[in-house]
Write a structure and sequence with these properties.
CATH superfamily: chitin-binding protein cbp21
CATH topology: Coagulation Factor XIII, Chain A, domain 1
InterPro entries: BIM1-like, BIM1-like_dom
Bound molecules: copper (II) ion
Largest sheet: 5 strands, mixed
Subcellular location: Cell membrane; Endomembrane system
Main location: membrane
Order of helices and strands: HEEEEHEEEEH
Protein name: Copper acquisition factor BIM1-like domain-containing protein
Strand content: 25-35%
Radius of gyration: 19 Å
Membrane topology: Lipid-anchor
Length: about 200
């Protein structure tokens, strides 16, 4: 019984480690899974290349390891934001999104009403992702544009259409496959233990 409890705990831990998130569009400053919990930018503290980000109808595409997460997107409008700038920006998030599925999630970020946001202004978008372990951080350096010529709206995709009813959609099985997989591993481990 103790063995089983330990195994369950190990499964939870490995899920937590794999269960971080990555930014898939546009590119972030950088990603280091072990350091993603480090505020304000997951250990990447200097501005890298800037992406032209649309003032209206923008989005950030992420790959979520957690099935559920609460996400805040903060915007600092200056050349080289400090930790204090990000802390201050968190008081007025540019967007707040709760997701309820793992893998691909498109997070809408419309900055058209954000104070100080206008064509040609440089800034940094900070993603604060809370999936139940500790908050995780990624940053994207941007130049805001009324017309972001290279922006690709087709990158906004979702792994499964969220369902509102109690019946899960037949195609939205990414999450349940993972759960089923975890249960299968647990059953296999338990079977192995009983066989001893
Ligand atoms: Cu995680």
């Amino acid at each position: 019984m103790k063995f089983l409890a330990t195994t369950s705990l190990m499964l939870l831990c490995s899920t937590a480690v794999l269960g971080h998130f990555t930014v898939t569009y546009p590119g972030s400053r950088g990603f280091d899974e072990d350091k993603e919990p480090q505020a304000p930018c997951g250990s990447f503290d200097t501005v890298t290349n800037r992406t032209e980000f649309p003032l209206s109808k923008g989005f950030i595409e992420i790959d979520s390891g957690h099935v559920k997460a609460d996400i805040a997107i903060n915007l600092v409008l200056n050349q080289n934001p400090t930790s204090a700038d990000f802390t201050a920006a968190a008081a007025t998030p540019a967007a707040k999104v709760s997701i309820a599925q793992p893998d691909a999630n498109c997070l809408p970020v419309d900055l058209s009403a954000f104070a100080g946001a206008k064509d040609g202004v440089n800034g940094t978008l900070q993603i604060v992702y809370n999936g139940g372990d500790s908050p995780l951080y990624q940053c994207i350096d941007v130049t805001l544009k009324s017309n972001a010529a290279a922006w690709d709206p087709s990158k906004c995709t979702n792994a499964a259409t969220p369902t509102t009813g109690p019946t899960p959609s037949p195609t939205g099985s990414a999450g349940s496959n993972k759960v089923t997989g975890a249960i299968a591993v647990l059953v296999a481990v338990t079977a192995g233990f009983l066989a001893l």
